[in-house]
Amino acid sequence: MSNPPLDAGLVTRLRRMLGEEGLLTGEAALRVYECDGYTLEKARPSLVLLPATTQEMSRSVELLHKAGIAFVPRGAGTGVSGGCLPADIPVMIGTSRMQRIRRVDIDNRRVEVEAGVVNLDVTRLVESDGLHYAPDPSSQAACTIGGNVAENSGGPHTLKYGVTVNHLLGLELVLPDGEVLQLSREAGSGGFDLAGVVTGSEGTLGIITSATLALVKTPQAVATMLAVFPGVLEASRAVSAIIAAGLVPAALEMMDALVIEAVEAAYGFGFPADAGAVLIIELDGLAAALDEQCVQVTEACNEQGASEIRRADDPRERALLWKSRKRAFGAMGRLSPSYCTQDGVVPRSALPQIVERIGEIGRRYKLRIANIMHAGDGNIHPLLLYDENDPEEVARVLDAGRDILLACLELGGSVTGEHGIGIEKTELMPASFGPATLAAMADLREVFNPRALCNPHKILPSDRHCVEVTRPRPRGGG
Amino acid sequence: MSNPPLDAGLVTRLRRMLGEEGLLTGEAALRVYECDGYTLEKARPSLVLLPATTQEMSRSVELLHKAGIAFVPRGAGTGVSGGCLPADIPVMIGTSRMQRIRRVDIDNRRVEVEAGVVNLDVTRLVESDGLHYAPDPSSQAACTIGGNVAENSGGPHTLKYGVTVNHLLGLELVLPDGEVLQLSREAGSGGFDLAGVVTGSEGTLGIITSATLALVKTPQAVATMLAVFPGVLEASRAVSAIIAAGLVPAALEMMDALVIEAVEAAYGFGFPADAGAVLIIELDGLAAALDEQCVQVTEACNEQGASEIRRADDPRERALLWKSRKRAFGAMGRLSPSYCTQDGVVPRSALPQIVERIGEIGRRYKLRIANIMHAGDGNIHPLLLYDENDPEEVARVLDAGRDILLACLELGGSVTGEHGIGIEKTELMPASFGPATLAAMADLREVFNPRALCNPHKILPSDRHCVEVTRPRPRGGG
Lengths: 478, 478
Hints:
2 copies of one chain form a homodimer. Chain A has helices at about 10-20, 25-30, 55-65, 120-125, 145-150, 160, 195-200, 230-245, 255-265, 285-305, 315-325, 330, 350-365, 390-410, 430, 435-450; strands at about 25, 45-50, 70-75, 90-95, 100-105, 110-115, 130, 170-175, 180-185, 205-215, 215, 220-230, 250-255, 275-285, 310, 340, 345, 370-375, 380-385. By secondary structure, the first copy, chain A, is of the alpha+beta class. In chain A, the strands form 4 sheets. In chain A, strands 12, 13, 14, 15, 16, 17, 18 and 19 form an 8-stranded antiparallel β-sheet that branches. In chain A, strands 5-6-10-8-9 form a 5-stranded antiparallel β-sheet. In chain A, a hairpin with a 4-residue loop joins strand 18 (about 370-375) and strand 19. At the A-B interface, strand 9, helix 7, helix 10 and helix 16 of A face strand 9, helix 7, helix 10 and helix 16 of B.
């Protein structure tokens, strides 16, 4: 379903304000924006705006608001739940031209950066001062700070360092009517935590134009270990044992046999061929403490039947180990033409059960499912492998993914660990929250977005018609 | 100004539902509830309700809502910003009869407790399992979890462990119309962070009836040190040096000469008589790391001219040191008939400047001001000493307190570190936030509290008339 054409006068006014680099209309230019990392659904915007300043952003949004035209913000488009899919939304507003570093305050360990600044570039800016920006999604070489705030992004180091909101000191937000808010989130600021509400709101409460981020001192020393297990069950028990020992690893990641197969083919780290599952355990802090912690980790893993435990000896080996993990998704191509990344979370103690359920679901739907997990947080990423040219297999993938998420709910978890609801999981909101809570969420959104022009159809179920896709998409339960 | 009498039929209905223990009307009974820790203003409710269950709470609120009667929630009344002052509010609803432990899950490190459960009792519940509840306000032997959530309470260990919202996994909230919401805050739950918005909302969005709290593993070892300095300036620099060294102390507290004088007289710890300021530095974690960290702390303190550095050798000495800090407020009576605790925050690097400004303000207003600080967070607690029988001195105390908070704002901080806005600081909200942000906060509150019946006149400035107090209270700037 394509959008009705936009008023030519409005487009002219916008072009005059933003300049040629700030406004895209051509078919070829717009194609880039038709989906994010959630590739199962695509929709083309009629217009893409790329304001260069907060004032241009504010004025653009104000013009659209006055004309009653819906719009969707977009960072780098690395999201995987369709959060910036322009479905039934004529205008997309990208932040890629807002990349200024506004302020660096090393003494107080904070920076203010515009929304289009890339996550990893924040760390690069301050690493020579011994600081870094902790939330490190796997997409950090491409994803933007604005997107990180919208999704409350985490990453492998969430276990110790928390997610975006834990490092957020302030936001500059353009409301859906164009008004600009400066929101502070300093300790105890007073009043209501508006910046906290905006964090994780997936672009539905306005457009973030800049953020003040807290920085973390880079630890004195790091120890990265690899432990190999006969299977995911044993690895899960080792995870529990490590946490129970009182350790707070910086990261605690699990990969199963299918993932190991793919990354070994792609990167040749040297994983054992018969590994059922591996844990990557990273500890950081004072050098004096690390050896002791490594001993405790080794004991915990041995007690759970680890066949091998290695410690990366040098930065090169550590980098390769992390490459295997952070680029694991990309390596899936070794196994299958397409894959679908699911994202759910269960209480850590329920990891063995969800792993069993995933196995059953894979068998029931005749699908291969590879497993990557932020095991310390109970955040699972089942990778459902399929061939996108087989519509029947696609349908099974969607059903299996939904069943996995419902299993997460049954085990006391939730339907998203970190990738957000986007457009992908709106149907699962009623299974996750009672009607009163959903109504409260809708009311909250209406405070910021009373005309529902800013990123409609996301998060909460809406009456939007099903967008035609080239593959059948099953609706409701089944 | 006293409240108009309540409809007798309503009171009868409430008494029938709640029973004799659940409803208080007598003069003597109500006097207890006329103020919290902010004693500069008092107001007596006409009725106090003490529901025993969520259902009773819900039904009570529903009846009041239908009758259009304003109400204010109250935990233990330990707050110091007047958050539960029943000014122009006929009905108070206390949570003291809701003290059930609903669920304990040691494996997943969480508990669900009702709002009236005392903070320290949560830790006592789980400490034999090697866990504790981290947010530890000085009032923790009395304050309740419901109050902690409403105020987003911290405490000395905030520096390392964060505040209440960092440990909050879920809430049960009774909305101002009586509806009950179950709000989850698990990692990535999805949707909007309603529980996060309620945290720190100071009882203005509804009444918390229960909370699911995350527990933290009790560290293997603790090292508590005392460092003595010639003055607050040197101590502040040592604070910066400790943080810059990459350490994350569990606590980093400062007390100045006046405080030391009081606590020494009260508790006889053995502070040196000529100490200008002391730092209490607590480190926790693995035993193997602590000695190294203590060495780094010692170096940092010596570089800033510490005259003495001690490490508490045993639990008894550690307990006495902490008693000196946690009961410091109570010891102020040694110096003065009354004192007013202020609460503000500045960027840590600005601690020396705010200390200077406090000194100037003390001289300007001819007041003695003692200083306690959560120095690692830049959270200051100036204690303004006065005689409450001297109305002119009281007026100077209020002006001086306000000037200190304005100085915090000027230095890039804020008007509350952790005690909240309550009724005490509503006039400072316009100095802290722009009109658009205040409007957004008001709109947010209206989502939850559309008839403004739940704890009105708190946080945001209202049109409420000045409540008569026995001492003059200056209005506006000065």
